[in-house]
Amino acid sequence: xxLNIVELSRLQFAMTAMYHFLFxxxxxxxxxxxxxxxxxxxxxxxxxxxxMTKFWGTLFGINFVLGVATGLTMEFQFGMNWSxxxxxxxxxxxxxxxxxxxxxxxxxxxxxxxxFFGWDKLSRVQHLVxxxxxxxxxxxxxxxxxxxxxxxxxxxxxxxxxxxxxMEMTSFYDVMFNTVAQAKFVHTVSAGYVTAxxxxxxxxxxxxxxxxxxxxxxxxxxxxxxxxxxxxxSVVVLGDESGYTASHAQKMKLAAIxxxxxxxxxxxxxxxFGFPDMKDRETHYAVHVPFVMGLIGTxxxxxxxxxxxxxxxxxxxxxxxxxxxxxxxMTIRQDKAATPxxxxxxxxxxxxxxxxxxxxxxxxxxxxxxxxxxxxxxxWDTVPAVAPLFWSFRIMVLLGFSFIAVMIYFFWRSxxxxxxxxxxxLRAAVAIIPAPWIAAELGWFVAEFGRQxxxxxxxxxxxxxxxxxxxxxxxxxxxxxxxxxxxLFVIEMGLMLKYIRKGPVxxxxxxxxxxxxxxxxxxGTHVMPTASLTPAE
Length: 537
Hints:
Number of strands: 6
Radius of gyration: 26 Å
Strand content: 5-15%
Oligomer: single chain
Helix content: over 70%
């Protein structure tokens, strides 16, 4: 297969996946925030919380619709652009996708309609249940998608059948409770909660700067700051869990992220800064923080984290082992039921390394004819591009800690400074609205680019996974997707900005009447309503 076909297929899928993920985190987080706001409304009966629920729910609905449209397109690409991948591992990968469609998506889609059109047809409690079911369906969709992706990162619960030439599931339990998948799920949804919190915070800050919808904005900031602080802290903690699972399941990815070329004496240091150089196989001007990487990666002080050079040597050994499995597989394909037991035994002994032999397919048709130089070259192919991973990870982490600082500040101002906010802080809240999306996209870049050269880690190389399409077909569809998605992006931004500028337009009379009574009661007890901005600030 021509490599440019593979690269074009990767580019097209990366573009559609990263565009789709512009919508996912906001959908995940807003679904929970909206349900929280409606819970407060049901508990207190205050119309302002109903108005908040409807307003932020409208923005959720716009985002949800476009997220569904882009997600469906992405799933069709498995059959169109990655047909051999779908054939090879479809029995495993297809199961969580099917469950996501049958259970989570239908649950989500069904109750979204009831959420928007059931306000006057359902009781308060019934509508609240609907809101939480929408949130549950949204998060369940993410769970099953991330179980599928987690299996690609750490393939468990499946074996290769030499008679069918396909991977077959042996334990759905192992696939579902894959440690990598579970760590990815909690980390991803927490990042989505941070994204929505920053979004609500920024939009509300803009309202306060414009002196519009002040009561809604103040309450929204209070909710977003509390929820966002808990979420931002959990992202860091759960990110640590992802690092720990990577040290067991994806050692090369972890070494590349760290720019760690040689195995260090335990506990390994964390490289805070440096310039990884693939040519010299060295990280220049590295600034190390002692012990940190060892604690994150192994949670111990005496276990080594292997470096890139050591892992390349291990890959070369696995390629040689995989060649033995490949030789036995060719005999099984030829002799079928008449295959000698010794050949099948040889295959079973080396079958775990068969995927490494497939890495040689990039250089020659028959891996059994590979020279030592080709084996060495294929072994180095297991090293992803270090510098992009190194810097993407560090920018993502820096943004993650900045979100904690932002949420702590607004939580403090909301709860201990009577909801007063300096103008510079409100402007900063508006300015950082795009930041969580940048962090999320960088996180997916680290996860997916760091897995290369594998579609399924250690099992199926990316170079063998693509469909046999022409360069012209891929170029044409790539241009089509870019054009179509650009139009959708303009529509999305136009609708979101339109409804943000318009502000809450539902339940205005009831809310204003309640607010007037509320302020009258406060004035009667000589407690004046807190201003959203203090003149001195």
